[in-house]
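Folding problem:
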Amino acid sequence: MPRPPTAAQRRVIDAADPVTGRLRGTEAQLAALVRHGLAFRHPRPPHDHFLTPAGHRTREETPAEAASTAPEAASRLAPEPPAPDTGVFAARVGGEEDTGPATAASRAREVHSAWQGLLELRRMTNRDGDTDRPCAWERTHLVRAAALALEAAGHAPAGPRGTDGYRVRATPQPEAVAVHAPDDATLVACAATLEKAGWQVGEHTDPRTRTRYLLASPRRA
């Protein structure tokens, strides 16, 4: 069983960029994280260090993060409580409180920056440098990755009552999320956005409620 990171290493992990996982620390700290499989050194200059998927999971093993995420085994139609405001960027999955028009401009800048950071992470971590295909980080953060793609494309998330925008939820299926929308036009638009962002998308109908929803998975090739 691998040893947990030291307090100093943990501070480096916690301070990593929330989207790209870029790390800052001493050479000894970064080398130790690489040895533990929590970070990797990018082969191209300036040879920065980034969290691996295991490093991202370690970063999230905090009380705040544990309380803000729903279990991955939740039903595809089960509600997922939105994350509380922890001061760290989080894509809106639908169901969050409206922050109001006063923060709309700053939110748009944050979303744009996060999306550009994710594209850069794809470029750096996909073996062929492909930015049109999801990367490992997205496969371990399915709900947030899909929500970021939707929000970055201008789609509006559902409000607290969940009836006026998209909602992204975990499913029992490996590497798949469910996307719900208030009408067919929005559902079709969300499907087009996710496909353009590198996701495989299929439309399904819930056998109990007869409501239509999308099942989306990150494309591998």
